[in-house]
Batch of 2 targets.
Target 1
Amino acid sequence: MSHLHIPDGLIPLPWILAGIGLTALFVCVALFALRKRDRARVVPRIATLSALMLLAMGLPIPVLGYHLNLTVLTGMIAGPAEGFIAALVVNLILALTAHGGITVVGLNTLVSGLEVCLGWRLWKSLRRAFKRPFVAAAVSTVIALLISTTAMLGIVAGTAINPGFALHRHSHAESAEHVEPADDHEHTELEESADHEHAAGSDYRSLKAFAAIVYSAGAVGWAIEALVVGSIAEFIAKSRPDMLGPSPDRRA
Amino acid sequence: MDVQFIDELAANGRTPLHDALPWAKIAASAALLAASIAARTPSVAGAAAAAVVLFASASRSQLRHAAAMALYPVFFAGLFALGWIRSGPLFALTVVIKAFSAGLVAATLITTTPFVDIFAAISRITPAIVSDALFMAYRSFFVLINELQDLLRAVRLRGGAGRGLMEQLRTYGQVLGVVILHSADMTERMYRVMVVRGYSQRIESAREWPSPKPLDYLLIAYAVIVLGLVLALR
């Protein structure tokens, strides 16, 4: 598990719209960065990289139902602009196969796109620091996936899809329907304050439990992805080093 | 996720849902998806899920494949739900049911409608570069998967896959490396073909859809009624 495919029905509408809006914005930025490139060359490269990501996801790995993603490798090969569009293409196809929500394509693309961009940036920096491409690629993968998983947890925390919040809002709505007597006012305030503390504590605990599950399962996934991406990078560096090189043509 | 198998189900199936027009299925699926997401209580989410199962049962024996695909989002929704199981068990249950019904809607659509028809609909709302990449990624996938399967078979026959997980993963890495190198050559060939064919900034879908039948209207009406009921009950 490198990034979590958030299913439908979890995220509130404003966040869904924000995800779609931000993805559209980043796609526009990517299109602007690619505007001077030959589209007949760019489209096949995005397509084959997207197909490779889908292909890697189909490889059977007998650990926790985990699948490879190759988002970081896509960033290393294609750069952030082509890589982000490839992430969108993959998430669209995945959503259609019930692999991540259709309404959450925007947010899922942002998380995958973050992995692509971090993979590109970290690989550029680390390949100078480490002699072996395997180590540079593996370290880039682990860091990128750790950050993207944290970003995903940030979305979960930020969207307040926590039942603590939901139940708290519900109790507020119910209490608003009943008019309290004037002499009970102070008592009600005290109760509300206790409710607030209880709800906040419950939210924190459930988020903490969720984060513990995600990080512990994710760590296994990051190690698997790092090993495979490292092996691929080492193989390509030996056979076709220009594919991973910082050529100006791939910087966009 | 087996895209090859899904494509086979969509292309070769003979059920009422396969006969329906793609745009009618997409519209009905959108309404059912909205109904699944809009549910706020376990009972309403369960009713929406039952309505989705009824819709999906029109695909006859393919329902079990679609239901199996819908278990994937249930797994992830379960991960979210685990964090809430103590503080809000009903909320956690609602989340899992909603994930199943939304997943089943998507799975039913994709197992009864060829990818190309769905991409043609998507291409109306996405930039040309995205829709063209979608079409070509789909085509590339089938070319590359054959190569990957042949390579993996050859490696296994020679006993090179390795016994432990680490060795197996390294082998996967090297095999994928070979496929990536070949995909770079394939990209170059695709570029030349596109130039020769006079690629003009967009691949046009020449697919023509016949006029709608009563079944198409029935699907849409059913989905809209389900959505209306869910919105009224939630």
Target 2
Amino acid sequence: MTTGPLPGPTVNPVNVILTEGLSKRFPKVTALDRLSLTVGPGVTGLVGANGAGKSTLLKILLGLSPATEGSARVLGLDVARDGGAIREQVGYMPEHDCLPPDVSATEFVVHMARISGLPPTAARERTADTLRHVGLHEERYRPMGGYSTGMKQRVKLAQALVHDPRLVLLDEPTNGLDPVGRDEMLTLIRRIHTDFGISVLVTSHLLGELERVCDHVVVVDGGTLLRSSATSDFTRSTTTLAVEVTDTGRHPDGTAALVAALDRAGIRTHAGGAAPGAGRVLLLEAADEETYDTVRDTVAELGLGLVRMEQRRHRIAEVFHSAAGSPADSAADSPADPAAAEPGRPGGTGQPGQAGRTRTGETGKTAETAGPSRPRATSGGPDGGGRDAA
Amino acid sequence: MRPETIAAADPSAEAARIHDIGYRRYDGPRLGRAYARRSLYTQSLRGAYGLGRSARSKVLPMLLFAVMCLPAGIIVAVAVSANMKNLPVEYTEYAVLLQAVIGLYLAAQAPQAVSRDLRFRTVPLYFSRPLERGDYVLAKYAAMASALFVLTAAPLVILYLGALLAELGFAEQTKGFGQGLLSVAVLSVLFAGIGLVVAALTPRRGFGVAAVIAVMTIPYGAVSTLQVIAWDQGNLDAVPWLGLFSPITLIEGAKSLFLGATSAFPGGEAPSGALLGTAYALVLLGVILGSYALLTARYRKVGL
């Protein structure tokens, strides 16, 4: 066995996963419908509502379930013919619990390493290494029955990584975790690629959390591909900015005054929606960094208090709309979307990615607001402009 | 952080260098399916005696193992001290005398071997690795059969060593010992198959234990009763045929048919004849292969 320091990201094939016209039909449902997608090296998020076909896709990619039609290649290997070879180089973390409670994490991961084909000594060394990397220390010698959900998720991740795969498939790894555990898991997922050089395909039904760690996001729905693009495309191309201001003696209607002032400055605004409390929120398109400064300065000149100024990212629903060819902001204006109202509710949980979930009537899909985003250009206003202000 | 950057930044950080060596790739050999199957076999066999698991899971198998060996020790001690000409118990007979212990062991450990993986949903982790469904079933089956063989063969070894110590006839003892080993080997494979199939039906361990006990004892009780009735009514031909219908009497009949062991059937009715021989061999083989096929079918649904 030879081990050495990591030579950096090493996945060289252009396509880690490639599917062409992949379909999977069960007697009653069509789980995948002519799905063609390409996944390159890096961290890729696979987003879809429950039942969108994510788990079916993972099964086919592992070579465990034959596709009804179409083909798929993983790491350049055909899933129909080389399932065994694929599974040797791929790690899989299931969504559900899979740990026997009366065995210690070390014992369990060593066993799984050996089932992956690692010789006994290597299996023990890699287990110690991997458990350390996922952040499991002294407790790894205790039976897993007493572990917290966060610790169990770490062990599940460790068993997927222990044989040093070239690709890991993570099925809903943040499920059941509290906000802190969720953040730690997401950071860990990012590290799997940046530090370990292993490509990642991670599924979730929350677009918001995947945006934070993925290079590329694939959205599937009803077994078909809705959208596949770099994460930056989801957010950067049209950043919607939500602004809310207070009224003052000089400007009894601060919002109206700001609309007029911004209009003079050449920035178009529109109301934040019809839901309760949303009447005071202004939405505008921030083309570049200067827009932030313009808004800040305008508010300061008017002497208004800046309650909030935040990026509002697109929700899955909007992705659906724009995939259908309609402008993204029409979705944000739609009165049928109460979730557009107040993602950054004052006194709310303040947890990114946790904010309001809703079901959009027309599509019947669980959608989620992408959550208040990274703090950016919010300071400098009269009130500091935090989203939890007021 | 890379080791060299730490060293460059702070020469005194030697300790940190040991603890933070970054991620290391694995370029060593990957030993493939056969090795994975062997690893699963070893782990399952150890697990059948509670090794590598909590202390609590060691108690029952170890206790049953001791109970199984204790009479053999006593017999040997008596035989040696009393200068017996022969062991009071035949090698092929021993397992029958302690069949209750074997049944208990099977009932306790067969669910342990398969229900655990189903209940805690560990099975998908196996099938997401190079291991195939057939490998899994084969490893589990072999491990259970081996565990039973260890349980049933150990007392025979004690008897044999004791017999040699007592300087009983070497050739005769060796022949008996060989026949005994063969009979417990067949018994182990047969019982393991039945126990695993029954246990794999349910992820609930308690149900598994009860079901295995039921399958081992109820047919045996029924068949024995019918045999006694048949024998009572002078229907001697029916006695060995009835023996085909329960695992324990199946082994009994096969032993007297193929190994010339004393029959434990009512009135010592020993099955004989080519027809009965074929029937016993076919049923034995059928049950063993059938168990394997059923187990394989059982896991078709479970993958992921």
